[in-house]
Amino acid sequence: MSEHVRTLANISPKPIFVMPNAGIPENIGGRAHYHLTPEEMAQYLSHFVKDLGINVVGGCCGTTSKHIRKVVETVGNLAPKKRNYEFIPSASSLYQSTPFRIDNPPTLIGERNKCQR
Length: 117
What we know:
two-stranded parallel sheet, two-stranded antiparallel ribbon, alpha+beta, 31% helix, 117 residues, elongated, 3 helices
């Protein structure tokens, strides 16, 4: 998710919250197991704060109290990197973003008609 977070950090003026799972779940015996260690999770989230300017981090599925403890120890006193974003108003789909501007705007020609009754 690093590249998606990087893209968002480069274009958004808003605070960003990242709350990943503790890795990709693997089905073992009919139960989801998450293999990301607390140290690995803290390392990733530290990168998001220090290098990408993410404001708030946490954990979702598979995250344990050990994960959160390590994240707090690692990033609890860090200030997020200042982000230099380029905000371009646009609409987005899953695959692309289209800015709300026209590079060659149309030329509008109008005239006023005085109607007599």
